[in-house]
Amino acid sequence: MNIPNHPKPYAARPMRGNRPGLALFTLLLGLGFLGHTADEPAKDKVPKLIAPAVSTGTGLLLEPALTLPEFTREKFEAAMASVGSEKIHKPWTNAVVPLPPHPRAEVKGLTQDEAKAYMMEAKRRFTAGEAVPLSDVGLISTQEDVIRKPMLNHIAAFSNEVARVYLLVQKTYSDNGWSYFSIVQDLTVSPPIDYFAEIRKTGPHFEATSCYKCHASGPLAIHPAREDLVLDAPLAAAIGQFIADQPRSVLFVPEDSPKPPTGEPLTLKFCARCHAEDGDRDRLFQVQSHPIRVLVDFGYMPPNRRLKPEEIAQLKAWLEKKP
Question: Which tens digit of pLDDT belongs to each residue from 282-303?
């Protein structure tokens, strides 16, 4: 991706369009996309900036939408800089940091140790100031009815011909230290396999139980909770487009972190048209109720229209069913 650097903060730049082709999550729950592979060049245009997150008042949210009026831009910048100001808001040419070729020629399936090595390389580059992270307050995690406080994110993307690698450096506003998480998408198999892990002091620890709720099939689109709570809006849009262009993929489930009970599948026609076994995106289940509530209420899903009142009523009835 050769996207020109735009150093101005989000609030200083005009919004273009209303729902960027990152389509909703365009991808809800990372629910995969068919698109160009990691090594293909992006289209020769700057992605549209991400539409501001504004509740449409559907009544689907369990708690009132948070607008964080007390969390100023100044507080946001100071909190994000605690990770190390030299690591963030950096000039960039490529939104996705290129990785060197994989050491094994014609590899068909990464080993778990290779996936972990990619995660550690992403963390090393971030720590050394070589990554190009976007920094924001995440919409879905901030609106969570348990958290309900600013969730601070630094997100960097990397790729080569065999893998897409993401690093998430995250903490709540009230936490002291930052936690490190990573996703490695193995592009050498079909469908690609997504490895999720928390990077602990002992190294990456694969996770599925805590990730499946929002990451059924991979990384999530970038949706800041407020348009001024992101340090580099064009970079957020570019990395979001890279996520939206990802191939449909499957979650790796380690034995010590099983997939949680899913509950009933979402079979409503206006959702299952895309979210299905043979659809463009993976199926949705009751376990994913929170991101469904947020993404529909904030108008990001479905990506090309708003649900009609009668459709909202049907979805609300399904969401309120007991698992």
Answer: 889 999 999 999 999 999 988 8
Tell me the per-residue pLDDT of 27-60, one tens digit each, with 9 for 90 and over.
333 333 223 333 333 445 678 899 999 999 999 9
Residue 257 confidence (pLDDT) above 60: yes
Distances (CA, A) of 189 to 184, 194, 263, 318: 13, 11, 29, 35
Q: How far apart are CA 216 and CA 225, in angstroms?
A: 21
Q: Which of these, 277, 270, 263, 254, lies nearest to 315 by C-alpha position? A: 270
Q: Are strands 193-200 and 203-206 parallel, antiparallel or unpaired?
A: antiparallel
Rounded CA separation 151/129 (Å): 22
DSSP 147-171: T-S-EEEEEEEEE-SSEEEEEEEEE
**Cα–Cα distance list, 79 to 49, 71, 73, 131 (Å):** 23, 10, 10, 19
Q: 268, 238, 68, 259: which is closest to 157 by C-alpha?
A: 238
